[in-house]
Design goal:
The protein has about 250 residues and is an all-alpha fold. It contains eleven helices and no strands.
């Protein structure tokens, strides 16, 4: 039994050596392919791949490419084509139909830039700043009771907008995740409930802040602030390259 075990271990070790040697040879072959000139690689094309390259060149020329531009674009593909050809994968399986690959080369799709969390938070905070500015302006024009002025002060507006913008940015990101990666509804609702509670506590605390620290504007002042905030948001979105829609 011990001899059988040693024999199995020996066979396993030999198998690992063969696999490692095969991977090393493949790696060396790939390096050699990528070090070879595209013209030399073209001479190694199989009949099937040669036909694919010919059709691809024809489609690129028909799409407005010049001869040298089409050749340069295809030359960039040659190492990958030959590497996969050796592995038994022809170009039509590697890239799909010629028309699709030609379209990908002629009209490349730029990867969508992911917006950082902080930038999305600022974007949404500015949006809420504008919305709350409009709301505060309406309150200032219609409410004659000055006892709530500290809850509608400019500092309140700034902090409240930041809190709403950050909280709802987080919520929006969670909802865009794949279903398996989303936190449970209980956790999500819990976070939102805590966030709303903190906002109400904050609003209550602001009633004790002196008006000299948290001054209120008149209705027109808040409307102006709202327009300025929305304008700043527009510029910020263009500067940061934010294209996804916020909440509005």
């Amino acid at each position: 039994m011990a001899d059988d075990l040693r024999e199995k271990n020996k066979q396993a070790a030999e198998k690992q050596k063969v696999t490692a040697a095969k991977k090393l040879k493949q790696s060396e072959t790939t390096e050699q392919i990528y070090a070879t000139s595209p013209d030399d690689l073209r001479s190694q094309l199989s009949n099937k791949n040669e036909e694919y390259v010919f059709k691809l060149n024809k489609h690129l020329l028909g799409d407005g490419f010049k001869e040298d531009e089409a050749k340069e674009a295809i030359d960039k593909l040659m190492p990958e084509i030959i590497d996969n050809q050796i592995k038994g994968t022809p170009a039509n399986q590697l890239y799909g139909p010629v028309t699709k690959k030609a379209g990908d080369i002629a009209h490349p799709v730029k990867p969508v830039k992911k917006t950082p969390f902080w930038a999305s938070s600022v974007d949404n905070s500015l949006l809420f700043f504008a919305l709350f500015g409009l709301l505060y302006g309406i309150v200032a024009l219609t409410n004659k009771d000055s006892s709530t002025s500290n809850q509608t002060g400019i500092i309140t507006l700034v902090i409240l907008s930041g809190m709403w913008g950050t909280l709802l940015t987080w919520f929006n990101i969670q909802m865009k995740k794949p279903k398996k990666e989303r936190p449970g509804w209980g956790i999500t609702i819990g976070y939102l409930a805590v966030g709303l509670m903190l906002m109400f506590v904050f609003l209550g605390a602001m009633t004790f802040v002196p008006a000299t620290i948290n001054p209120s504007l008149n209705g027109i002042g808040y409307f102006i602030v709202a327009v300025v905030a929305y304008g700043v948001r527009f510029v910020f979105r263009r500067y940061m390259g934010i294209h996804d829609r916020g909440f509005f």
